[in-house]
């Protein structure tokens, strides 16, 4: 019997050593936390819009909601497991290794519920031990961190997304077959760090992380004609495995990606790298030097496709994209929209300050590198007279209640004054 399927009181013992429990299929408390989850994240407004062909009309305001938006299956599952863990282990300390998802509202709800974050200053105090429960977030954790937590004897609740596990499987395969994993992702992102660590499970495993087309272009240039090793390492030194040698480790490559990256860019980078290998070694050698498997997350792709369809089918004055500023999939939704219409990426409903003022994170143009731009304030963002058509979407870590509050705030902003109001 797998440890993930044991009941909590069935602690496995091998050769006299107690093995830590790992729950990977929930804790049999789904029905018990259903009401709490609905209370914290459900929105009647969003459900009404969904059943009205994803359209909302109120006075001069029309909102077109993307047909795929908000919580994906992996995020919904991770949050569900966290609530189950808090209820099941009510008398024990329960920790998260870091943010369960990149949404400040959800993470604050979990803190309020008594779940502590190992990433917070001063945590854990005192140190972790066998009596503690640690939740692994949807992004997963590195191989080293998992081994450390198991070594401490902590009970683990693993919510790693299935799409992430699929990427890990392929990175593991690359390493076993002697291929360097070239990962399209953000080198400091928890998911990419966890994915990269999978290559190191095999002796001699190697990885390289590229952020975008620009960085991929430098790698392709080196593949085609070599170059100055020192210059290459100066650019990528913090994005490669220890002992990385571009002359040796770019001779056989396998492509993977952080699941929340822009789908079109991941595919383009894979094509760029493939062509570079063909140019260097020839088409006949490609099968023994290049690997690529589809590791695009279906939920990420569906949300990106849905917002493109919305912009193709509906004329809107502006797009609102709701989600955490450190949410990769939300940032990529904003980049797609910003190529077509004025777009405002807001972290929460409180960024809608007034009909005249919005606080948002600027969206860098698609031909510029991704950058963590500071939040800014824009005035005159919402048409103050006549019909207003707003496109709305949300990242995979944004709950429906936040989306619903955005709709209600917009309704208030665009309401026509009543006769009594005008008389005052």
From TrEMBL:
Key words of the record: 4Fe-4S, Iron, Iron-sulfur, Isoprene biosynthesis, Metal-binding, Oxidoreductase
Note accompanying the cofactor annotation: Binds 1 [4Fe-4S] cluster per subunit.
Entry annotated with the keyword Plastid: no
InterPro entries, alphabetized: LytB/IspH
Cofactor(s) it depends on: [4Fe-4S] cluster
Keyword set includes Iron-sulfur: yes
Active site: 191 (proton donor)
Enzyme class: oxidoreductase
Pathway: Isoprenoid biosynthesis; isopentenyl diphosphate biosynthesis via DXP pathway; isopentenyl diphosphate from 1-deoxy-D-xylulose 5-phosphate: step 6/6; Isoprenoid biosynthesis; dimethylallyl diphosphate biosynthesis; dimethylallyl diphosphate from (2E)-4-hydroxy-3-methylbutenyl diphosphate: step 1/1
Biological process according to GO: dimethylallyl diphosphate biosynthetic process; isopentenyl diphosphate biosynthetic process, methylerythritol 4-phosphate pathway; terpenoid biosynthetic process
Residues where (2E)-4-hydroxy-3-methylbut-2-enyl diphosphate binds: 102, 189, 259, 327-329, 397
Binding positions (dimethylallyl diphosphate): 102, 189, 327-329, 397
Binding site for [4Fe-4S] cluster: 72, 161, 297
Residue sites binding isopentenyl diphosphate per the record: 102, 189, 327-329, 397
Cited Pfam families: LYTB (PF02401)
Catalytic activity field: isopentenyl diphosphate + 2 oxidized [2Fe-2S]-[ferredoxin] + H2O = (2E)-4-hydroxy-3-methylbut-2-enyl diphosphate + 2 reduced [2Fe-2S]-[ferredoxin] + 2 H(+); dimethylallyl diphosphate + 2 oxidized [2Fe-2S]-[ferredoxin] + H2O = (2E)-4-hydroxy-3-methylbut-2-enyl diphosphate + 2 reduced [2Fe-2S]-[ferredoxin] + 2 H(+)
Highest taxon in the source lineage: Bacteria
Enzyme Commission no: 1.17.7.4
GO MF term set: 4 iron, 4 sulfur cluster binding; 4-hydroxy-3-methylbut-2-enyl diphosphate reductase activity; metal ion binding
HAMAP family (alphabetical): IspH
UniProt similarity note: Belongs to the IspH family.
NCBIfam families, sorted: ispH_lytB, PRK13371.1
Role description: Catalyzes the conversion of 1-hydroxy-2-methyl-2-(E)-butenyl 4-diphosphate (HMBPP) into a mixture of isopentenyl diphosphate (IPP) and dimethylallyl diphosphate (DMAPP). Acts in the terminal step of the DOXP/MEP pathway for isoprenoid precursor biosynthesis.
Protein name, entry field: 4-hydroxy-3-methylbut-2-enyl diphosphate reductase
Gene: ispH
């Amino acid at each position: 019997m797998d440890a993930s399927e044991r009941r909590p009181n069935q602690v496995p013992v091998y050769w006299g050593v107690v093995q830590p429990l790992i729950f990977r299929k929930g804790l049999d408390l789904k029905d018990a936390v259903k009401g709490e989850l609905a209370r914290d994240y459900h929105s009647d407004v969003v459900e009404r819009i969904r059943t009205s062909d994803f359209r909302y009309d109120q006075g001069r305001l029309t909102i077109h909601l993307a047909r795929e938006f908000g919580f994906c299956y992996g995020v919904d599952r991770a949050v569900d497991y966290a609530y189950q863990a808090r209820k099941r282990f009510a008398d024990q300390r329960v920790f998260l290794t870091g943010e369960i998802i990149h949404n400040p509202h959800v993470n604050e709800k979990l803190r309020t519920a008594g779940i502590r974050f190992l990433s917070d200053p001063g945590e854990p105090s005192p140190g972790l031990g066998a009596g503690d429960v640690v939740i692994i977030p949807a992004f997963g954790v590195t191989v080293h961190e998992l081994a450390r937590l198991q070594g401490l004897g902590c009970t683990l609740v693993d919510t790693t997304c299935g799409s992430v596990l699929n990427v890990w499987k392929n990175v593991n395969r690359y390493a076993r077959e002697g291929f360097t994993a070239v990962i399209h992702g953000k080198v400091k992102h928890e998911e990419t760090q966890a994915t990269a660590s999978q290559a190191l499970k095999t002796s001699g495993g190697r990885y390289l992380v590229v952020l975008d087309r620009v960085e991929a272009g430098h790698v392709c240039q080196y593949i085609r004609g070599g170059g100055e090793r020192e210059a290459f390492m100066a650019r990528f030194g913090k994005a490669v495995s220890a002992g990385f040698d571009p002359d040796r480790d770019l001779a056989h490559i396998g492509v993977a990606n952080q699941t929340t990256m822009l789908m079109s860019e991941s595919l383009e980078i894979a094509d760029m790298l493939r062509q570079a290998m063909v140019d260097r070694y020839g088409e006949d050698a490609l099968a023994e030097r290049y690997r690529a498997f589809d590791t695009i997350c279906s939920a990420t792709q569906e949300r990106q496709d849905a917002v493109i369809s919305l912009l193709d089918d509906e004329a809107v004055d502006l797009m609102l994209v709701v989600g955490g500023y450190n949410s990769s999939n939300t940032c990529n939704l904003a980049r797609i929209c910003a190529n077509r219409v004025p777009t405002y990426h807001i972290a929460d409903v409180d960024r809608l300050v007034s009909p005249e003022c919005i606080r948002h994170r600027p969206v860098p143009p698609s031909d510029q590198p991704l950058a963590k731009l500071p939040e800014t304030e824009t005035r005159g963002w919402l048409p103050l007279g006549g019909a207003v058509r707003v496109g709305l979407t949300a990242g995979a870590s944004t709950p429906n209640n936040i989306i619903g509050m955005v709709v209600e705030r917009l309704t208030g902003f665009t309401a026509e004054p009543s006769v009594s109001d005008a008389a005052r």
